[in-house]
Amino acid sequence: xxxxxxxxxxxxxxxxxxxxxxxxxxxxxxxxxxxxxxxxxxxxxxxxxxxxxxxxxxxxxxxxxxxxxxxxxxxxxxxxxxxxxxxxxxxxxxxxxxxxxxxxxxxxxxxxxxxxxxxxxxxxxxxxxxxxxxxxxxxxxxxxxxxxxxxxxxxxxxxxxxxxxxxxxxxxxxxxxxxxxxxxxxxxxxxxxxxxxxxxxxxxxxxxxxxxxxxxxxxxxxxxxxxxxxxxxxxxxxxxxxxxxxxxxxxxxxxxxxxxxxxxxxxxxxxxxxxxxxxxxxxxxxxxxxxxxxxxxxxxxxxxxxxxxxxxxxxxxxxxxxxxxxxxxxxxxxxx
Length: 336
Ligand code: KG4
Ligand code: ZN
Known about the structure:
about 325 residues, alpha/beta, Nucleotidyltransferase, domain 5, 2 domains, about 20% strand, globular, binds 5'-O-[(R)-(carboxyoxy)(hydroxy)phosphoryl]adenosine, binds zinc ion
């Protein structure tokens, strides 16, 4: 049998500086994340130039730590996220990865960040089954019909705010800091999701598109009237329920329409307790198998990029070192 393939992956698309070394599809050799969240929270959101300067400062340390776990010559490929994401942030990771690939004399792999999230629920496995994939992160809300690795058909996406963006904007309105999704989730656990009736945008639009900006505006108008502090858990729970109702309804309708019996949910928002619980109930009712990414692989990380890279490597792919970054999400770049 041939030697197991080892990939170094670098992820710098937003405010996490991450690197990982993965052997084959699931043997984690090393995995490091330096989160800049605290740095950006002072600004109430991610500041692109601050992010890229911090990537530049942290990356040698983060990459050095994971490379310490292997011997020179062990690497079979070096991957980096080349988009979508913040242009100046992507450039740092992509340039570093290309340099290491050239130095090591191994192929460079340009990995799409969305593909990293999309595949993460199957981490460790060699096969990607046909399924419906919901990717819900701070920057994206995307619903795909997946036939297998590399065969993704975009069914729908958000027309305005991403689900995570709605969480973060509502958290900001509530004075909960940045990023506030996890804090809303925490507060909502003690709240009544049926107390306030916030709109379920595009729930019955008859397609697989999403919209969350109307919900955010509705919460803003509601809050402008003033509210007692004790209502905070009920507001968080009611807002969260409105987001989750739409995500779950449309994802399960897509599974029915495409005749799929597996659903995956990935990205930072897939950590949300209400989303997980509601999806689990729907899965049981609809006899669908539900997959989430393992802990630590839901918010941005380099292991999911390494895992996607392992699939590319196994498929015989490699990308030239003059491959440019692609900051915007272009469905054509990953859809077959
Ligand atoms: O996947 P991710 O790390 O970044 C992007 O690719 O955008 O997702 C980050 C997003 C943020 O909007 C954050 O507020 C949200 O995921 N998030 C959550 C939870 N944990 C993280 N949203 C709701 N509930 C959570 N528990
Ligand atoms: Zn992400």
